[in-house]
Each structure stands twice: as C-alpha cells, then as structure tokens.
Amino acid sequence: MILRKAKGIQIDCYKQMSKESPLHEHLNPQFVYIPLIQQTTALKRTVEVGDDILIGQVVALREGFGAMPIHASVSGKVSAIKKVWHCSGKMVDAIEIKNDLLQRMDDSIQPEADTTHFTREELIEKMKQAGLSGLGGAGFPTYVKYQTKLPIDVVIINAVECEPYLTCDYMLINAYPEKLLKGLHYFMRAANANRGVVTFKSYNTHVKEVLQPLLVNYPGIELKEIKDIYPAGWEKYVVQQVTGKTYEGLPAEAGVIVDNSATAMVYADVVEKNIPLISRVITITGEGVKNPRNYYVPFGTPVKELIQLSGGYTEGLDPAKAWYIAGGPMTGRAILIDDLIVSDTLGAVIVKPMPEDKTHPECLGCGKCADVCPVFLTPTEIKRAYETKDVELIKKLNAQKCMACGLCSYVCPSHIEITDFVGKAKDLLRKGA
Ligand code: SF4
Ligand code: SF4
CA–CA separation, 336 vs 322, rounded Å? Predict the structure, then answer.
C-alpha cells in the first residue's frame, strides 16, 4: 500500500497534570475484580467461590483464537462472582477476590538463574503462559504476533503515548528504564530480529536521558524520536518513521513487530521471574480530581479507590455528574460512573465536569474533518452513507480504514461526534446489514 504522508496536527496537551507526582504503588486493595472478558472474548472461569487463591494462580482461560490463561493479581479467597463495569463500557462478570494482604505467591513465580538458553519457541511460550497482552489499549495476545512465519527485521517499542492526558508509559519508563531495554532484548530474541527501536515523542527528552546511557549494554537497540503531532503513535506511522515501509494488514508484512513499552517491561519480569501479567500502571487525572497521578496496581483494583487516593473530587464536583473517560479523550470511551475496574486495556481514567452540550445540529461543510484524517477519509460522506444505511457506499468510502483516532471530532467546529458515526458505519459494514 502507498501510504500518503499523514499530516497529523498538534493538539492541546494536559500531561503535565499527572507528571508532577511520582509513581505511586497501591498493591493491596481490599478486593480485586478479575473480569471474565479479554478484548471481546468471554473467559472460562476455573475457580469457585470459597477457593483459596495465590498471586499468579490461573483463575480463568481464554479459549479459541489467542488462547491463554488469566492469573490472580492478589492472594486471598474468591468471595463472589459479580458484575462490574469494564472499560469496554459494558457490565461483565468478574471474579471477586478478598485480599488477605499476605501476598502469597504461586509456586510458578520463581526467578530464572539463567535466561540465555531460552529458545525462540520457549520465549514465545512464556508470553502465552503469562497471559501477556498489549497494554497500549488493544489487549491483543502478544504471542500471536510472534508466531508469525514472516521474517522479522526489527521490533519497535511504541512509547509515543499520543493521548494528551496519559503519562502511564512515560512514568513507568522513567522509573524502570533498564526493564524496558531488557523486555525489548527478549522480544528481539523471540522474533529472531537483530534490531530493536524505542520510539518516543520528541518533547519527552527525559526518556532519552534515562535510556541513552544504558544502550551500551544492549547491542542492536536504538532510540528514535517521533514528531510531536497527533496521531504519531499510530502503528502504521511509527513503522513508516522507523523503516520507511508501509503495509496493508499487519506490521509483520513490513518485517516488523510493534509492542507497547509497558508490555515490554512486563515481559522482562515474565522471562526473568516468571511473573505473569497481573498488574499495570494507570493514570488517574483530569480537572475533576484533586491530585492527578499514576498508580501501579494489581488488575481488578477499583478505580473509585484510586480517585480517593488522589484526594477525591475537586471542590464542587458532584461525582454523579462527572464525566469519566476510560482511556484518552481522543480514542477512549465516556462512562457515566466511577465504578470501573483496572484491566489490561485501561491505561487511564480522566475525570472532568460534564461538558456542556455544544453540539450544533448542522454540519457547516467546512471540510476540516477530511483535512485532518490521517487515512484520508471523508467522514461527512461516511456519516451520510451510514444514515441512509448504504453499505455499498460505506465500503466504497473505505470506512473500514478508520483507526478511531478521534481527530475528526476534535477539529469539528460544530462539535459533531463524527468519529462515532464513522465507527457505527464500520459496524454496519461488518454486519453487512
Ligand atoms: S477517527 Fe477515523 S475518520 Fe476520524 S480522523 Fe480518525 S481515522 Fe479519520
Ligand atoms: S468538521 Fe464538522 S462541520 Fe466541518 S465538515 Fe466535518 S462534520 Fe461538518
């Protein structure tokens, strides 16, 4: 595919809010809730109410495509199976574990004395058994990418973190820079690739400062600054910036595998300590919380607890009338309550006063949405085709290429949520209705 040069734009940045405070650990919530869903796949529960649970114990299985185990993030007892709000915007069943606060570990969590002997196959199997999935928002099972039969020249770590409020990747790299390079080193071995590249936005000079001195111990790994535009973290854009190549479907077609920086850091612990994917860093931020900051937490931690740890809501903000954005404002999802739980695909919760409805009923025909679209779509035409349920036209207009970056809504002077219409058109196309 010939990818015309995506322009991208500069958008307002609110990262400073949550960068001021150091990374906080909150390792012992009273209860965690392990959702019985991974991406959109329902999980099979393997434990019962009353079971004793250890950290790292398998509590559920993903079956079929991307099959892998899901592990407990705290030790204690299964106290209930409950419905909880998931960042997908749905209520889902979850395993409630009452934390005994003893941090008892499953026997499988053991340090490896030597990691040099692992074969490519063993390294990929480790990803699978650890339930490793992408922490950048997609939640895609990592091992599936590494099972490619295509030759891989380069593994790229995407630490671009484009969303304007998120700092979870940035804070984690600053706290544990060497872990990122170790994770990338193991990814390169799992891909048989000689080259590894960490990409980051040009203004994040601190990332360069902490990583550069360590590179001497990691041959084949280099750093690459990416322009400060949105959506520079888009996978296709990152691959093009690093390799000059484009692709139609998956980066492996261009000899590339791309992973998020937090995923690489978890993988270092998977290989060296056999710790499965059970925790992550989440940014709690926005004008609606007193002390925005980042938390390192076990999966299943209630977001409400993290808002309280952040000093609670700002004066005068009624939590029932606040707006909670799961993910970032560009690509995330607005959720009306704070009863969410932390999961692999939830990198941030942004709390804001409910915005005034400024939507102007009329499209002004200004064309700004088409001007900024990185994949050169015409969102207004797609919206019209959706409204008339013209599936053939939706297809012709290439709606399936939309990567939900949110730019068209961001620039619209009438505040039309045009991204949602394009998303609905894509759904219609998928259903073939
Ligand atoms: S959300 Fe989709 S249609 Fe809108 S600008 Fe991004 S890629 Fe284009
Ligand atoms: S940016 Fe908004 S007003 Fe302008 S053409 Fe697109 S939908 Fe219409």
Answer: 7
